[in-house]
């Protein structure tokens, strides 16, 4: 079984998709897929599908969706398969679970690569970190579960995945800066700081990349924009770390040169 959530939903058995076209069954399959191998309670499924406005007899509607999914699974398995649809989508005291031996989980592979990349970054192996984190980020096919309606349970999972993606991205850009690729990451960082106007770490990376590219005034303008955003939205100043980086740029601090290991010095 292949399960992919880093983009449109993918659930394949022996190469055959079992993702339904109808919105509610697709949403239910997505929640089962992100919890593959674990039971999902009927109450959780109900909350995900209908939030605070369930239909009368929601457990019966859930069971109807289960039957639809099992029919798709049966077609994918074929008549000769060793597993039955009720084993692949099983019922237990905890609810329903999607089960297949050794499923290929796209999100798990992404998180494994990210973990290895961040460890390499911490160890100072910047080339390996950039490579591994770049491979991890390349696994994303678009926004997570881009073709699935998102309810409360899936929203939690998406927040977790997006945070992991941002961590991988910041790690890869940090490695690239250490490798002297400052001009190569400016465009990417400009787009990211527009998307996340309150994300200090991204602004700090952009400030450093701009400074090292001989664009000090733009680095200072980046700080000004961050300061205005945090004051307007949060009523606070940027962190002391970013303020120290700002002062270092104003003073052309030699620690900002390419041989500086990281932003941790500020």
What attributes characterize this protein structure?
elongated, 11 helices, four-stranded mixed β-sheet, alpha+beta
Task: Explain what you see.
- The chain has 266 residues and is of the alpha+beta class.
- The chain has helices at residues 23-34, 42-50, 58-77, 85-88, 106-122, 126-138, 152-178, 182-195, 200-212, 216-234, 240-250; strands at 2-4, 10-13, 16-17, 89-92, 95-98, 104-105.
- The strands form 2 sheets. Strands 3-2-1-6 form a 4-stranded mixed beta sheet. A two-stranded antiparallel ribbon has the order 4-5.
- A hairpin with a 2-residue loop joins β4 and β5.
- α10 (216-234) packs antiparallel against α11 (240-250).
- The longest helix is centred in the middle third of the chain and has 27 residues, at 152-178.
- It starts with a strand and ends in a 16-residue tail after the last helix.
- Residues 1-100 bind DNA.
- Residues 1-100 form the OmpR/PhoB-type domain.
- This is AfsR/SARP family transcriptional regulator.
Secondary structure blueprint with pairings:
Elements: E1 2-4, E2 10-13, E3 16-17, H1 23-34, H2 42-50, H3 58-77, H4 85-88, E4 89-92, E5 95-98, E6 104-105, H5 106-122, H6 126-138, H7 152-178, H8 182-195, H9 200-212, H10 216-234, H11 240-250
Parallel strand pairs: 1-6
Antiparallel strand pairs: 1-2, 2-3, 4-5
Helix pairs in contact: 1-3, 5-6, 5-7, 6-7, 7-9, 8-9, 9-10, 9-11, 10-11
What overall form do the CA principal axes indicate?
Answer: elongated
Mean pLDDT: 92
Helicity range of the residues?
Answer: 55-70%
Counting helices, strands and paired strands, the structural category is: alpha+beta
Q: Mind telling me the C-alpha Rg? A: 23 Å
Share of residues in strands:
5-15%
Task: Give the CA-CA distance, first to last residue.
Answer: 47 Å
Order of helices and strands: EEEHHHHEEEHHHHHHH
Family: Belongs to the AfsR/DnrI/RedD regulatory family.
Protein name: AfsR/SARP family transcriptional regulator
Keywords: DNA-binding, Transcription, Transcription regulation, Two-component regulatory system
InterPro entries: AfsR-DnrI-RedD_regulator (IPR051677), BTAD (IPR005158), OmpR/PhoB-type_DNA-bd (IPR001867), Sig_transdc_resp-reg_C-effctor (IPR016032), TPR-like_helical_dom_sf (IPR011990), WH-like_DNA-bd_sf (IPR036388)
């Amino acid at each position: 079984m292949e399960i992919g959530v880093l983009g449109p939903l993918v659930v394949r058995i022996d190469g055959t998709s079992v993702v339904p076209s109808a919105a509610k069954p697709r949403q239910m399959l997505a929640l089962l897929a992100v919890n593959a191998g674990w039971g999902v309670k009927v109450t959780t499924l109900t909350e995900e599908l209908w939030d605070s406005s369930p239909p009368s007899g929601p457990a019966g509607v859930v069971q109807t969706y289960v039957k639809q999914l099992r029919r798709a699974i049966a077609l994918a398995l074929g008549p000769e398969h060793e597993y039955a649809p009720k084993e692949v989508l099983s019922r237990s005291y905890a609810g329903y679970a999607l089960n297949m031996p050794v499923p290929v989980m796209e999100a798990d592979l992404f998180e494994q690569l990210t973990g290895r990349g961040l460890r390499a970054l911490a160890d100072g192996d910047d080339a390996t970190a950039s490579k591994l984190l770049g491979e991890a980020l390349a696994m994303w096919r678009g926004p997570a579960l881009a073709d699935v309606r998102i309810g409360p349970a899936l929203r939690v999972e998406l927040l977790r995945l997006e945070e992991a993606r941002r961590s991988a991205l910041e790690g890869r850009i940090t490695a690239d800066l250490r490798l002297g690729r400052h001009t190569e990451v400016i465009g990417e960082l400009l787009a990211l700081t527009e998307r996340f106007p309150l994300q200090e770490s991204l602004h700090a990376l952009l400030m450093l990349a701009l400074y090292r590219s001989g664009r000090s005034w733009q680095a200072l303008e980046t700080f000004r924009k961050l300061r205005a955003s945090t004051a307007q939205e949060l009523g606070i100043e940027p962190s002391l770390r970013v303020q120290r980086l700002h002062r270092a740029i104003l003073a052309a601090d030699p620690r900002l040169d390419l041989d500086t290991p990281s932003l941790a010095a500020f």
